[in-house]
Design goal:
Helix content: 10-25%
Radius of gyration: 21 Å
Number of helices: 1
Shape: globular
CATH topology of the domain at 31-101: OB fold (Dihydrolipoamide Acetyltransferase, E2P)
CATH superfamily of the domain at 31-101: Copper binding periplasmic protein CusF
Length: 104
């Protein structure tokens, strides 16, 4: 009985540690940049945005999970055009989570 209690305690600790490390890795930091669309490449699922302030060209890969919206309407990558003002939310330098087109 004593061994069973120790085993259950050990199992509980392992489960708690596992769930803690999973939550750390699943909560990536979301970054946001604002800028102007320089290029849209529908064939390669990517966009290039000139970041406001720095004027640096940033390239992003658009995945199936990427949400592109203009106002309340969901749009496709092909609907983006050069010179569209956008906010881009991403987890790292390549994977885009959201692209929000600013309505002028």
């Amino acid at each position: 009985m004593k061994h069973l209690s120790k085993l259950l305690t050990l199992l509980l600790v392992v489960v708690m540690i596992g769930s803690f490390t999973t939550s750390i890795y699943s909560q990536e930091e979301v970054k946001t940049i604002s800028g102007i669309v320089k290029a849209v490449d529908v064939k390669n699922n990517s966009i290039t945005v000139i970041e406001d302030g720095t004027q640096i060209d940033l390239n992003f890969t658009v995945t199936e999970e990427t949400v592109i919206k203009k106002g309340d309407k969901k749009i496709e990558l092909a609907d983006l055009q050069e010179n569209d003002a956008v906010d881009v939310k991403f987890f790292d330098s390549t994977k885009v989570k959201f692209i929000i087109v600013k309505i002028k």
